[in-house]
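Entry 12.
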Amino acid sequence: MNYRLRANGRYPLTAEDIRETASALFGATPPLDVLEKVGADIVQPTTMPGFDLLTEVVIEGPPKKTDGVWRQTWIVTTKPGPESRDINAERDRRIRAGFTFEGVAFDYDDASQKRITGAATLAGFAVAAGSLPGDLRWHGGTSDFVWIARDNTLVPMDARKCFAFGEAAAAQESAIIFAAKAIKETSPAPSDFAHDRYWPS
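Predicted 3D structure (tokens):
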């Protein structure tokens, strides 16, 4: 397919990613109108702009909606120096440190991130398919759906709560990314950029 999707606060997700996640509810190829019902927007690709290989890099920006169509965007920026790499490392450390949802702390390492994204996307499909509040078997299994918190306790989640769980994780990650961006745009960047006051709590 020649497009990608944004869903549950995350981009990019390919149509195949979401369809694979939702296969338990809709089969191998859930229709695009169902994707749209759960907030999955089709993002049309665009051509990467030219740039100076010696001094610049091109990164993919957030998709932009123009004339009712979501389109891929690109950002041309200078190659990061040692300071920017250090800020990026702090950003990544804070993202992987986890997040809190409804007063409970959860892990958010690379593996957890993928599992949360997949579960939240599947939960969105379950809600669209008519899953009722309080239904803990919405995932199609024979036991209640629960998530293991950082302290090893089990947190039951119906489909709506699981979807909100994924949204909270994505919102925290986005806030940290934009905090890092703000630090790097400060001239000069503060030497104590790792201090908590520069980052979301």
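Annotation: Helices lie at 15-21, 23-26, 32-37, 82-96, 110-128, 159-185. Strands lie at 4-7, 10-14, 41-44, 56-66, 69-78, 99-101, 104-106, 146-148, 154-156.
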